[in-house]
Write a structure and sequence with these properties.
This protein has 22 helices and 33 strands. The chain is α/β, with parallel strands linked by helices and 778 residues long. The protein folds into five domains: 112 residues, 3-Layer(aba) Sandwich (GIY-YIG endonuclease); 67 residues; 187 residues, Rossmann fold (3-Layer(aba) Sandwich); 183 residues, Rossmann fold (3-Layer(aba) Sandwich); 90 residues, Alpha-Beta Plaits, CATH 3.30.70. A seven-stranded parallel sheet has the order 14-15-13-16-17-12-18, sandwiched between helices. It has a six-stranded parallel sheet with strand order 19-29-28-20-27-26, with helices on both faces. It is globular and about 90 Å long. About 1% of the residues have low confidence. The structure holds a DNA duplex (12 and 12 nucleotides).
DNA sequence: CCTAGTGCACCA
DNA sequence: GGTGCACTAGGT
């Protein structure tokens, strides 16, 4: 008899282990690790989905095991490599194994559970389709025994199928007599004869099903179901292109990578140095060897500009995975990869789990981006997964950036990674942009405007020359807070310790943390004064200001609020690319990966946002962002100009952006990290503790800190507990502990003990999150 | 002594 | 998460 070890889809600590199930005779031949199954679980024997991680042959009859109810897959949906990855992940990602496994599957394969409510009269309804009131009524009826419950654990898998018509025997069709008055039948006959055996999609035919049926019944045509890719049309529209000539530096990088295919490389290249061309050619090299490739791009820059380059070069060998796709589209791409049809995967963070076989190279572009770390459970870093996968396959790993993260650069300096430098712009004619820093303290004390004279002048100049401008303002909404001039009262979110942001389009005050929305008060809630004023500028306000100062300028605004709908992102960029607007105004999402040759001016309205955040990476982030946005200026033959407005003109992140000196920044920042024992000199783990009651959080946070101190060596530095910078959100108080360490054998063990603590009943409402190498402290 | 309500351990 | 079960308080 066979026994299957299964991880059940019940994400809880007590069920976070493999359960043994008997395999019935009917599945015995088929079952394999990596398949999804349905099984009876718990006292009610409700059907639960699970993933088989191991199949054992058991000669003697084991004690009464339950039996697997259903096999959901004809073949494994997870590879042995992915099962191994889930094991490895758990050493650093403090999450349930089932969560790790599910992170590797497209959503469609992660089944949703629904309850089918059966009334005594035989009628039934689905729980998920009921209104809140109906749910309550049904729940009562269930208790009264009037309604019984059935659990549905149904897979949502749906392949998009298209029906195709084909003619198996042309002669037979030609000789087949059709009566003259059957005009439509005759029409179809001659149409098919003209097609000459070519397949045709049923939906493109303008014949009724009756007519088609007649032909099928007489064996004249065959109908085939073909699984189609939802993204096919998009691919067909893109023109293919050829490899470009590499310059000396690019060639050197390329050669090094292909001759050391088991190494990790850090490709450091200034904007416009042609990193993408190196990526394309190295991928091509591995494809020619019969291998596959994964290319990661930050979600935000996963624009058509980037993806089209890959499609143009590799055609239908490419699978694209990003969050803009529907579940169905994601599933299609996943199938393409799984079946081996696609050998190049281009995608955001989660694409690192793509089920490719025989991996030759993994590329992570803009490797410094913090979005490569997932900020919800399982909190994995794509770079860490990439290292594991590269190890498994003996594949090359290429990290690319103009401003590498200090962690990666430090590793390259120690020889852990090989450093490859691109110091010249690929297009020789293109010169680096000129960067000017405007000290906003020196500007006329008129606080009502966001534009310095210098910036305004330049904008006008560029518009006259019919060139385009990108303006970045890292704050969305209209005003960042609303304050009473009379008593200083600021309108705060009732659930969070943060002021509400004014949104003019909807005329509401919004909380950017919990989503709370309320109206704008006419009088001060505190002193009833009418002197309510708006302070701080967001993209909406700056847009309005631009309309006032430069009514002739056409402005496009791009931020979370204008890109919420599907493809909105794409449409805005497309419009700007066609020069249907002069100014693209946006939050940091406009800084990444855009390439508009006609943009000759980049303006940073306020470089200070983020600079003074209580986060040791604040300077690094600011520097990266400014360097990146500066790189948007003058990418073709026109010289670019960058104007940075700031109240901190002497801050080193701003000074070194002006000098465009990564090297100097690296040195300076490393010295600071060394002095304060931060990464890359130390590793970090953050423990976040939340509860509705502030006293309880504080008390528990101290208990946890104590537990950590007891288990770790004195070399580990434990900071805190301290209140988070925004101490309360969603009506919960948040405290944090930061552990800085180098070598701590007992760390994993200690952190697991912390998690076990939360299982105790007295800590029921306590929320404890463990984040290894946290990226955001605010 | 019965019963509705709540807390709790366990799930193969 | 969901379930049966033990325990408890309050009613008859």
């Amino acid at each position: 008899m066979k026994i299957a070890k299964v991880i059940v889809d019940v994400p809880l600590m007590q069920t976070d282990k493999a359960f043994s199930y008997a395999v019935g005779q009917e599945f015995s031949e088929l079952i394999e690790p990596g398949m999804r199954v349905h099984l009876p679980f718990g006292t009610g024997n409700r059907l639960v989905q699970g993933i088989v991680v191991e199949v054992l042959e058991q000669s003697e009859q084991l004690e009464n095991l339950k039996t697997i109810a259903e096999l959901l897959d004809p073949e494994p949906v997870l590879t042995p490599e992915q099962l191994w990855l889930a094991d490895e992940m758990r050493h650093s990602v403090f999450s349930y194994k089932i969560s790790c496994l599910k992170a590797m599957l497209p959503n469609l394969l992660n089944s949703n559970y629904d309850k089918l409510l059966r009334a005594s009269d035989g009628s039934s309804s689905k729980w998920s389709e009921l209104t809140e009131a109906q749910k309550i009524a049904s729940a009562k009826a269930v208790r009264a025994g009037e309604i019984s419950i059935e659990y549905l654990a149904k897979s949502k898998e749906n392949r998009k199928i298209e029906k195709y018509l084909s003619v198996p025997d042309l002669d037979k069709l030609a000789q087949f007599e059709i009566e003259k008055r059957a005009k439509k039948r005759l029409e179809l006959k001659y149409f098919l004869l003209r097609l000459n055996q070519e397949k045709i999609a049923l939906k493109t035919l303008d014949f009724s099903t009756q007519i088609i049926k007649f032909f099928v019944e007489h064996d004249l045509v065959k109908i085939e179901e073909v699984e189609i890719s939802r993204t096919k049309e998009k691919f067909a529209a893109i023109q293919s292109d050829q490899a470009k000539q590499l310059n000396a530096e690019q060639t050197q990088a390329f050669e090094k990578i292909i001759h050391n295919p088991e190494r990790t490389f850090l490709l450091e290249g200034i904007t416009g140095s042609g990193k993408t061309e190196v990526y394309l050619q190295t991928i091509d090299h591995f494809l020619k060897k019969g291998q596959t490739a994964i290319m990661l791009v930050p979600e935000i820059s996963l624009t058509p500009q980037i993806t089209n380059r890959f499609i143009a070069r590799f055609g239908d060998k490419v699978a694209i995975m990003h969050s803009g796709l529907s579940d169905g589209e994601k599933y299609d791409e996943w199938r393409k990869i799984k079946s081996g049809q696609a050998q190049v995967v281009v995608g955001a963070r989660s694409a690192i789990f793509a089920p490719v076989e025989n991996l030759g190279i993994i590329i992570i572009d803009e490797e410094h981006e913090s979005s490569y770390k997932q900020d919800s459970s399982p909190r994995y870093h794509a770079r860490d997964i990439a290292l594991l996968r590269a190890k498994w396959h003996g594949a090359a790993l290429l990290l690319g950036s103009a401003t590498p993260s200090l962690e990666s650069r430090a590793r390259a300096m120690r020889g852990v990674y090989d450093l490859l430098l691109l110091t010249k712009r690929a297009n020789e004619a293109a010169i680096l942009p000129e960067i000017q820093v405007v000290d906003m303290r020196q500007e006329i004390s008129d606080q009502s405007t966001n534009f310095s004279q210098t910036l305004l002048q330049k904008i006008k100049e560029k518009i006259e020359k019919n060139e385009q401008i990108i303006l970045m303002l890292n704050r969305r909404g209209y005003s960042s807070f609303v304050m009473c001039r009379e008593c200083g009262f600021v309108v705060d979110c009732p659930n969070c310790d943060i002021s509400l942001t004014l949104h003019m389009d909807t005329r509401t005050l919004n909380c950017h943390y919990c989503g709370h929305v309320q109206g704008i008060p006419q009088t001060c809630p505190n002193c009833q004064s009418r002197k309510i004023r708006y302070y701080g500028s967001g993209t909406q306000k700056v847009e309005e200001e631009l309309h006032k100062i430069l009514p002739e300028a056409r402005v496009l605004r791009m931020d979370v609020d204008t890109t919420r709908t599907k493809n909105a992102h794409e449409k805005i960029l497309d419009k700007f690319g066609k020069h249907e607007a002069d100014i693209l105004l946006g939050t940091q999402m406009i800084a990444k990966g855009l390439d508009f040759p006609n943009v000759t001016l980049v303006g940073v309205i306020n470089a200070d946002t983020g600079l003074n955040l209580p986060d040791f990476r604040a300077s690094e982030r600011a520097f990266e962002l400014l360097m990146q946005v500066a790189g948007r200026a003058g990418r073709a033959d026109k010289k670019g100009e960058v104007i940075i407005q700031t109240f901190n003109p002497n801050h080193y992140a701003i000074q070194l952006t002006k000098a465009q000196d990564y090297e100097k920044f690296y040195e300076k920042e490393m010295a600071f990290r060394k002095e304060l024992s931060y990464p890359p000199y130390y590793f970090t783990v953050q423990v976040l503790i939340s509860h509705q009651n502030e006293e309880i959080v504080i008390q528990k946070a101290y208990e946890i800190a104590q537990l950590l101190r007891q288990n770790l060596t004195t070399k580990a530095k434990i900071l805190g507990p301290t209140a988070r910078p925004i101490a309360r959100t969603h009506n919960l108080f948040h405290y944090q502990i930061l552990v800085k360490y180098r070598f701590e054998e007992q760390l994993e063990n200690a952190l697991n003990q912390v998690l076990e603590l939360t299982q105790q009943r007295e800590n029921k409402n306590l929320r404890v999150l463990i984040d290894s190498e946290p990226q955001n402290f605010v």
